[in-house]
Design goal:
This protein is mostly beta strands and 155 residues long. 10% of the residues lie in helices and 39% in strands. Strand 1 and strand 2 form a beta hairpin.
Length: 155
């Protein structure tokens, strides 16, 4: 894939640095990481769910952290010494440690997470603050000659 140079856009825009950085990183594979498999689904107008297949991991083995528009999910099996006395002829169930990061859009917050039948479900919701929602601008006349613009919050 060709590399796109976003430097001309950096000079003519303000506040879109993160967007261009994300676009630039789309062309670069995520280090070939495919474990654990996951789905991202839209469950409502402003609701999303990430489902990860984490068979073999208990709730205590998983950590979920949301910080600065990044959701980090990590898993590590606690060493309990049970595997020392076992001899595997075939080991196809992966239980290796992992760390998966997801970029979250502005105003997207984690609302909950639960583990069910080997699937970790993480629920997300986008809540746009009232100050960022569109509002209607009324135009009114002043002394019959000029116009004055007044803003009213729209519910």
């Amino acid at each position: 894939m060709r590399h796109v140079d976003f430097s001309p856009l950096y000079r003519s825009t303000v506040g879109f640095d993160r967007l261009f950085t994300m676009l630039d990183s789309l062309g670069q594979p995520e280090n070939g990481q495919t474990y654990p498999p996951y789905n991202i689904e839209r469950t409502g107008e402003n609701a999303y769910r990430i489902t990860m297949a984490v068979a073999g991991f208990a709730e205590d083995d998983l950590t979920i952290e949301a910080k600065a528009n990044v959701l980090k999910v990590a898993g590590a099996k606690a060493e309990d010494g049970q595997d020392a006395d076992r001899e595997y002829l075939h080991r196809g169930i992966a239980s290796r440690a992992f760390e998966r990061r997801f970029q979250l859009a502005d105003y997207v917050e984690v609302t909950g997470a639960h583990l069910e039948n080997g699937l970790l479900h993480i629920d997300l919701e986008r809540e746009i603050p009232e100050s960022m929602k569109p509002r209607k601008i009324e135009i009114s006349r002043v002394n019959g000659n000029g116009r004055q613009i007044e803003a009213k919050a729209q519910n």
